[in-house]
Amino acid sequence: MHAKVEQVVSGTPFCHFIGGEFVGSSGGRMFDTLSPATGEVYAQVHEAGREEVDAAVEAARAALAGPWGSMAVQQRVALLYELADGINARFDDFVEAECLDTGKPWSLARHVDIPRGAANFKIFADIIKNVPAESFMTDTPDGAGALNYALRVPKGVVGVICPWNLPLLLMTWKVGPALACGNAVVVKPSEETPATATLLGEVMNSVGIPAGVYNVVHGFGPDSAGEFLTRHPGVDAITFTGEVVTGTEIMKAAAVGLRAVSFELGGKNAGVVFADCDMDRTIEDAMRSVFANCGQVCLGTERVYVERPVFDEFVDRLRLGAENLATGRPELATTTLGPMISRQQREKVLSYYDKAREEGAEIITGGGVPQVPGELGGGFWVEPTIWTGLPESSPVNREEIFGPCCHVQPFDDEAEAVAMANDTPYGLATSIWTGDASRAHRVAAAIEVGITWVNCWFLRDLRTPFGGSKQSGIGREGGVHSLEFYTEMRNVCLKL
Ligand code: NAD
Questions:
Q1: What pLDDT digit, counting tens, does each position of 22-53 carry?
Q2: Tens-digit pLDDT profile for residues 139-194
Q3: Strands 301-307, 405-411: parallel, antiparallel or unpaired by DSSP?
Q4: Which SS3 state, helix, strand or coil, does residue 152 take?
């Protein structure tokens, strides 16, 4: 057992959080959770069976039937603000828990994961407080008319299935709007990252969120907590972030009972660099978009298309940046690159490193496993890697790798760049770097993705629609768009 975890999340092994209480699994089924920085087991986690999932769904239904279901919006809004403050009050615990689970640098968790985790409650509190109600005056033959108005009601019990790359951030991105809209949730965090979802249960209790509004069940996907939850008839809607293949399975589960789904899935995102860009700024953004979180960001860039006159300069400067990244203990300010989340994910990434070599890629930098000394020697490290020279048909250019790597390819004109960027079954995000605003606008409209950044990357305004086109997702979340999923509209026609 890792000594630190006891100080951060009370009650290890990690328990489920059901009906406001931390409970273990009947029969005591457990699994290990590892520190990716050391490769060592740092805690045990209870694995939910059908019984625990049933209990969590029942607790959520009971919460909807209780005070939560009839709570005034203003009161819900106040509680969501308190939740955000509650996360901030335990900021360091959340940072430590997230970094134990993921191995990511503390600096990243401090600047991105945990502040966004708190902000996700505030933004949706503000949105639900200000959302206008649609209404129409309708003419009637007697001249008195009728007032039509729409009521927003919660969907009910929402199943929330989360990935491991930005655990608290992505979970609260769904739990925030779900609660703002008056739903109750059952969350299934990734089996790789159980800590912050559990810790959030403590905050829920401390700020007085009614029992059963937020429930957590731990476990795996198929034939485990994930499948039991998505197949549960007491779940009214399912929101999922993860891989396309998993989304396909969840969609089959949701088809029974015709439950609504919202999917945020994988990507194979392209960056497009024009010769007239501000190269200092472009390199800074490209470094983050390829290597942040060790490349484990759905919005990250794995294909970079660079206009030929600046190709060599771009490749050389990106190489320098990659070679300056420093692996190390997550808590050190000097650490800028964490490990992969798991041994399995590292094997997957390394299999693409092998493929690139076999297919004759020019390896600009990396391509292997770094020597990391001492207690970190068993961690799941890979080298930041840049290739060029592979055909567009290579699996390295077609499949999502989800590692700290990219392939860089020159282009000669705008149409060629757009065609290559679009030649993918995915459609999540793209970044364009150019000094020409008209071209930026033209290219942004032509690339088939849900999110386009121009001269930036991962600059998020949480009021904007977020989601993927093609195989990268179904639906949009963010701002008022989240309300479309987390509420149902009912129309009332009142004859005057
Ligand atoms: P994953 O699909 O393997 O797992 C995600 C979650 O689904 C986990 O909690 C897992 O236990 C659960 N799960 C697996 N099989 C299931 C099943 N049959 N039924 C129910 N639940 C099941 O994804 P991952 O490896 O955790 O995350 C990485 C993936 O997530 C990448 O593809 C990445 O692009 C994607 N992602 C997308 C976004 C986005 O906003 N579009 C954000 C982050 C990550």
A1: 999 998 899 999 999 999 999 999 999 999 99
A2: 999 999 999 999 999 999 999 999 999 999 999 999 999 999 999 999 999 999 99
A3: parallel
A4: strand
User: Is 1's pLDDT higher than 50?
Assistant: no
In a 3-state reduction of DSSP, which class is residue 304?
strand
Rounded CA separation 314/273 (Å): 9
Please state, in angstroms and as integers, the Cα–Cα distance from residue 225 to each residue in 56, 109, 222, following that order: 11, 27, 8
Active-site annotation, residues: 264, 298
Please report how many Cα atoms fall inside a 13 Å half-sphere around the Cα of residue 456, on the Cβ side: 7
Using the atom order of ligand 1, give the atom closest to the CA of residue 242: 30
- DSSP element (H, E) containing 422: helix 414-422
How crowded is the C-beta side of 244, counted as CA atoms within 13 Å?
16
429 lines ligand 1 (CB under 6 A): no
114 alpha carbon to ligand 1 midpoint, in Å?
Answer: 20
Nearest by Cα to 162 from 198, 197, 202, 112 = 197
Mean pLDDT of 344-351: 98
Q: What is the pLDDT of residues 209-229, one digit of tens each?
A: 999 999 999 999 999 999 999
Secondary structure of residue 257 in the 3-state scheme = coil
CA distances from 153 to 45, 58, 163, 215, 299 (A): 35, 20, 28, 21, 32
Q: Taking the CA of residue 162 as centre, how many other CA atoms within 13 Å lie in the half-sphere pointing to its CB?
A: 31
Q: For tokens 């484990």, what's the residue? A: 296
From residue 177, how far is each of 76, 182, 215 by CA, in Å? 11, 9, 15
d(CA 40, CA 375): 10
Choose the residue to mutate in 168, 262, 298, 481 for probing ligand 1, maximizing ligand atoms within 8 Å of C-beta. 298
pLDDT digits (tens, 9 = 90+) for 54-86: 999 999 999 999 999 999 999 999 999 999 999
What is the per-residue pLDDT across 388-442, written as a single tens digit (0 to 9) for each? 999 999 999 999 999 999 999 999 999 999 999 999 999 999 999 999 999 999 9
Planar angle of CA 39, 43, 44, nearest 5 degrees: 115
| Residue with CA closest to ligand 1 atom 16 | 221
CB of 403 closer than 8 Å to CB of 340: yes
What is the biggest distance separating any 2 CA atoms in the chain, rounded to whole angstroms? 85
Q: Residue 350 has which token pair?
A: 């390394």
